[in-house]
Protein 1
Amino acid sequence: MRRRWSARRRPPPGRRTPPPRSNAEPAGTPSATGQGAAAVVSAGLGLVSLTGGWPGTVAAARETLVGQLRTAADASVATQIKEVYGDAWSTTALWGGLFALVALITGVVVLARPAFGAPGRTVQAPWTRSVAWAGVTLGVIGLLLAVLTYTGVLLGLPAAS
């Protein structure tokens, strides 16, 4: 029968001692997994803010339909453009800005989380920080594009001639 040594007894000569326990969280703990998932969500939302999402498309289609119903057949071309296309364009920009803002906030929370954790437990996987920075960057770009699109600075409505 082999004799095993416990943490209270000293190991026999020639055996390695177990590594000392650390206060840092290993990469597979629930906190690290949640931070990684939040970083991926941040990057995904940032990407959706740039490419457009289903809610923005549905809201834009609804605004187009409402604009068509509100516009009289004998309305001027400028009024038709504004009612049918302008409101839908603004709605798409608003939804893109909303996704960008959520991506930005989520990424910043993931990056700031280690500063508010327990002392000595600030381990964060390098890929988590990288993906969170990607989410923040995509969020800033998406928010900037949404504001420029909504205000008409970028891709404004065509003028009626």
Note: The two ends are 97 Å apart (CA to CA).
Protein 2
Amino acid sequence: MDVARPRRQVHHEVVELPPRHVLEEVGERVLRDRSELTDRQREAARTAHFAGFFEWPSEHTGEEVASMMDISQTTFTQHLRAAENKLFAALFDDTVTVS
């Protein structure tokens, strides 16, 4: 006997992005202000980028990128997440309205 399962309703927030020229200006500011990243955060982000970590599918796993840096995967992930947090905050804070 097939029992129909109730469907869960998922509610998504609506995000309104600013015009492209505003994002480009913010992106330029992020590049200028990248000194806010620690050396290790910058190294983690740079190594991940050039190793194809952000590609789909990824060219290298987090474990492989960590090995390239001679650190543990946990440490790599901590550095990368901190860098992402700072970069995204600089890019999106005060430019996005969530409703």
Note: The chain has a mean pLDDT of 80.
Protein 3
Amino acid sequence: MKLFIYIMMAVLLTGCAQTAGNPSTSIKDGHHHHAFKDGQTIAVGKVKTYPLTKLKTTTIDHTIKVKDNDTIIYTEDTGHGIPTKPAGEGHTFHAILKVTYKQLSMYMLDDGTFVTADPKHVVVTEKGHHSNNYPQYKMHEDDVHYLNSLDKKDADYKSYKTYAQQFGQRQYDYTREMLMHTAIHAVNHQTPNSLEIPKESFQSFEAFKKAK
């Protein structure tokens, strides 16, 4: 079975930050709703705190306007090209997530990119109440195939399936947290401290049963 951490990185590149070929665009009339791959619809006001840094996210439905040309947008750093670009004075965007870390804050836009939430650089022009589409964890098809190949009548199968899903979700959350930790520093022109994902090996079904 594949190590989930590598799968999570692949998911992040294709799902959470699918903007390499689809740069963020400003909105002039209404909202542009982007469908994240394997996304989920979440209402406004849901709060989540990430374990490694205590970084906090809150789902929102805001229209924001950029106040100057110093503001930048951060896109997932894939190693190809520069991960930041100017937001553009006067441009308007649809923000669907507010992220806070210590004294820093930023917005995630509806295409998965990030921009500062510092009121010196952006202003909220409208607060909506619509649910929006967000990235979510989905198990890789190879791992689904592996689970399906196991004996579902085995007494330990259900607990192992739960273990596999929780492991994948945990690794996905670590990767999301690392992305946002980097982004919130970048858009606020700060240098982040190093952040490492805890090393955790995934157990095969046989190893899982022996460890019980």
Note: Confidence is low (pLDDT under 50) at residues 1-33.
Protein 4
Amino acid sequence: MRDPSLPLQDALIRALRAEGVLPIVGKRVYDQVQSAPTYPYVSLGDGQVLPDKAECIDGVEVSLQIDVWSRGVGYVEAKQIAPRSSRRSTISR
């Protein structure tokens, strides 16, 4: 079985990089962070794929971790970015 989190990860990165979604971050959304990133940025952490089976379908529930990285003092900058980056998505096969 193909890992269902891969298309979701790709769609999530494209959605977060879209113009105007995260204006403070811009295109700095990574699944693998470069060695000397420009702050602030968003990265994808671990994910989880759980079976979600019913009598007539075989489904999965996919969760992906979104991390916000900032060098701003305190949490203000990260808290401005975080609500825009956390969205619940549902995909079905």
Note: Residues 59 and 86 are 23 Å apart (CA to CA).
